[in-house]
Specification:
By secondary structure, the protein is α+β, with helices and mostly antiparallel strands. The protein has helices at about 1-20, 30-45, and strands spanning about 55-60, 65-70, 80-85, 90-99.
Length: about 100
């Protein structure tokens, strides 16, 4: 009985060690932080109006890509603005404007 309990506990501990907690690992920023950094970059580049557009955050391994989409009722400006943020260093990797 004790051997069986010890075996079950050891198995549970080894399985728990194999589990990961979502796509975010220790030392990486989260989606909210990536959005804040992207909005700050838009402000730095004098593109503040785009920061109010609807945004979507995508996970690409070492990058968070934040895409700001133009509202459907507006025709001025680009249809989208994309900003890539490095997860580890929190540096802006690229800013691209869709046409």
């Amino acid at each position: 009985m004790i051997v069986r309990l010890a075996l079950v506990c050891a198995l549970a501990a080894s399985l728990a060690a194999c589990q990961s907690v979502g796509p975010v690992h220790i030392g990486e920023i989260n989606q909210g932080r990536a959005t804040v950094l992207a909005q700050a970059e838009l402000g730095r580049r004098h593109l503040e109006p785009y920061a109010a557009w609807r945004s979507e955050v995508s996970d690409y391994g070492m990058l968070w890509e934040v895409t700001f989409y133009r509202p459907a009722d507006r025709k001025d400006g680009p249809p989208l603005v994309r900003i890539a943020v490095n997860k580890k260093t929190e540096h802006i990797v690229s800013v691209s404007v869709g046409e």
